[in-house]
Amino acid sequence: MSTIRFQAMPTKEAEALWNGGADAYENRPETMVSDGPGHPCRHCLQNIDEGEGLLVLAYRPFPSLQPYAETGPIFLHANPCPRYACEEGLPPILSSPDYIVRGYGFNDRIVYGSGAVTPTDTIAERAASLLERDEIAYVHVRSARNNCYQCRIDRA
Predict the structure, then answer these.
(1) I want to staple 71 with a disulfide (CB 3.0 to 4.6 A). Which of 11, 60, 67, 115 is the partner?
(2) What is the pLDDT of residue 89?
């Protein structure tokens, strides 16, 4: 039994964007057509295939504004897609050699000393170890090159 759960962007947030809602900067998402791999959808956690429409938007995976509420660009399928459901498995979008894995406290702020560039095949182990710490509420997986938000990891 897994002790962690990989979480995609909540469907409610994705639906608001699909229905013309504004992003974290109060802008409408930009639309593009995928030219192939490198456009990971944060709702289904799959890469957006070449020729498919996509949205580019500013996303803040935190409940409120505060100094540690990082905001950055993400991609989302232009048309509704099912939310990632295999919560205990490594999501398909995690295909780079490594990612930043970092813990956040119950106040939604970075827990200093918890972040590290982590080989992809050890993300689950590292996240489980971080989540054993009482001060860590959840973990983010972020791009090791650009710090873009990929997904969240919670206790199972």
Answers:
(1) 60
(2) 82
